[in-house]
Design brief:
The complex is a heterodimer of chains A (291) and B (190). Chain A has 291 residues and is of the alpha+beta class. In chain A, the strands form 3 sheets. Chain A has a 6-stranded antiparallel barrel. In chain A, β1 and β2 form a beta hairpin. In chain B, strands 5-4-3-2-6 form a 5-stranded antiparallel sheet. The longest helix of chain B is centred in the last third of the chain and has 18 residues. Chain B is of the alpha+beta class and 190 residues long. Chains A and B meet through β1, β2, α5 and β12 of A and β1 and α2 of B. β12 of chain A pairs antiparallel with β1 of chain B, so a sheet runs across the interface.
Chain lengths: 291, 190
């Protein structure tokens, strides 16, 4: 039994050292985008924040997100699973640290074991073959994205910080109760405190989505996305990045970069691109008075 | 066709191989940037010995400081700014026009933060104390000129000048002198 396991693992290691090829499914036709199409998102890691200046000289804070070995691990389809989705994996992991069930899952897909797996629901025309790597150029500079991740944990926090309560006066006789909740209900009717009453408790560490962040810059060599503004979570957090849901159709990106690469960027187009591409803010000069 | 072929070595370095294994591509396809996208000065990323954020900060400093403004904050350079110097900062009013604004004052603070390095200049204008904080690598800054070197300032941050200015902000004579010198230079070159 042990020898069987070890031989299985040895086979796995040799298998993983070969070139990683993606499988081409039978139903591969050049997919075209329709207004009902939904392409996949990616998993990126939050690397930190910095700033850049746009073409008008305005300083813009940006979050740097890096795509680390982001690959399609499984395709979920209507017949077997009841919905169409892609399971995306991010960041390779050494096989010795991966459980046997998960190793089997990754072997079946023919990809290296990943640290994080997320599903992204897609329309059937946006399905990618297993093993396809998603790169930063899946997004275009100037488009809007949504970023989801667990927020930074803040520990046990009082109601003022957690729910924005007003507290009590600092003086005028208030004794020992400056930051407390105050009243938690009525009197004999209802005679209880309602469920879900906002009180002190653990704050943070929950999933949050920041919507409609603009992609300011794309780095093809380091697989970086610079998004304008802040993104939930700590550094090195796994962030789910998708096309913005509130920018439908032509609003997702400036007209001259549309259509978005569908289902993802073609290798030929990626090869032609320079390393870095910066989005322009557009519009009119904000430092010039409008008449 | 989605066939990304990559060697393990290329993957480990974080660089996706942008060449198909069938290297039968005669001409490299060209990329034409659309109007809403700019292609900045490209550098080759070198991740050896430094983290990702340090690398991109260094590259951005190289890009934004291409006109040599990094020397203003480089202590080993003779043109380095020092707290107490009287400087003249010329800033563009906007990126669309060439009009500039000038501010003269005493440099009271310098903050070294890489790409976000900034300095504060103070002057008394029409009996009102005015402090201007400038980001060193901002594209709106056209030039920074030292009009006079500071003497006798023994601090890195001269915030005490807010309460005890002494004669530090008597700069009208300097400005006049500088204007005359500039006019002479212009006349000579013309």
């Amino acid at each position: 039994m042990a020898s069987l396991l070890s031989s299985f693992r040895a086979g796995l290691r040799t298998g993983l050292n070969t070139e990683c090829r993606s499988f081409v499914t039978a139903a591969t036709q050049p997919a075209t985008w329709t207004h009902k199409s939904l392409r996949t998102g990616v998993i990126a890691r939050k690397k930190g924040m910095t700033a850049m200046w746009d073409e008008w000289g305005v300083r813009i804070p940006v979050t740097v997100l890096q795509l680390e070995q982001c690959q399609v691990v499984q395709v979920l389809n209507e017949e077997t699973h009841g919905y169409t989705a892609l399971q995306i994996g991010s960041t390779d992991r050494t096989p010795k640290n991966v459980t046997q069930p998960m190793l089997g899952h990754f072997t079946k897909a023919g990809v290296e074991p990943k640290r994080k797996l997320f599903e992204f629901e897609v329309t059937p025309d946006a399905v990618l073959p297993v093993g396809t790597e998603l790169v930063a150029s899946h997004f275009v500079p100037g488009q809007f994205v949504d970023c989801s991740a667990p927020t930074m944990g803040k520990g046990f926090q009082g109601a003022m910080k957690r729910h924005g309560f007003g507290g009590q006066p600092a003086s005028h006789g208030t004794s020992l109760t400056h930051r407390s909740l105050g009243s938690t209900g009525q009197r004999k009717d209802p005679g209880k405190v309602f469920k879900g009453k906002k009180m002190a408790g653990r704050m943070g560490g929950e999933q949050a989505t920041v919507q409609s962040l603009k992609v300011m810059k794309i780095d093809n060599d380091l697989n970086l996305l610079y998004v304008k503004g802040a993104v939930p979570g700590v550094d090195d957090q796994f962030i789910k990045v998708r096309d913005a849901v509130k920018k439908r159709g032509n609003k997702i990106a400036p007209a001259d970069v549309l259509p978005l690469p569908f289902p993802t960027i073609q290798p030929e187009a990626l090869k032609a691109m320079p390393r870095e591409l910066v989005a322009k803010t557009g519009g009119s000069d904000p430092y010039v008075m409008k008449e | 066709m989605f066939s990304f072929t990559r060697t393990l070595g290329a993957r480990l370095s974080g660089v996706t191989a942008r060449f198909a294994s069938t290297a039968a591509n005669a001409a490299k396809p060209t990329y034409k940037a659309p109007a809403s996208v700019t292609v900045p000065t490209q550098f080759k990323p070198n991740t050896k010995g430094q983290g990702l954020m340090q690398l991109i900060a260094k590259e951005e400093v190289k890009r934004m400081g291409a006109d040599g403004r990094s020397k203003l904050f480089n202590k080993s350079h003779p043109d380095c700014l020092r707290a107490g110097d009287v400087v003249l900062v010329e800033t563009l009013n906007s990126m669309s026009a060439d009009k500039t604004s000038t501010f003269v004052g005493v440099l009271i603070a310098m903050d070294r933060r890489g790409l976000h390095s900034n300095f504060t200049v103070r002057n008394v204008v029409l009996k009102v104390g005015v402090e201007m904080k400038y980001m060193l690598y901002s594209p709106m800054i056209k030039s920074v000129r030292i009009m006079k070197r500071g003497e006798g300032f023994r601090r890195a941050k001269l915030f005490y000048l807010r309460d005890n200015p002494g004669r530090a902000f008597r700069l009208e004579g300097l400005v006049k002198q500088d204007k005359a010198a500039q006019a002479k230079k212009a006349a000579k070159s013309a």
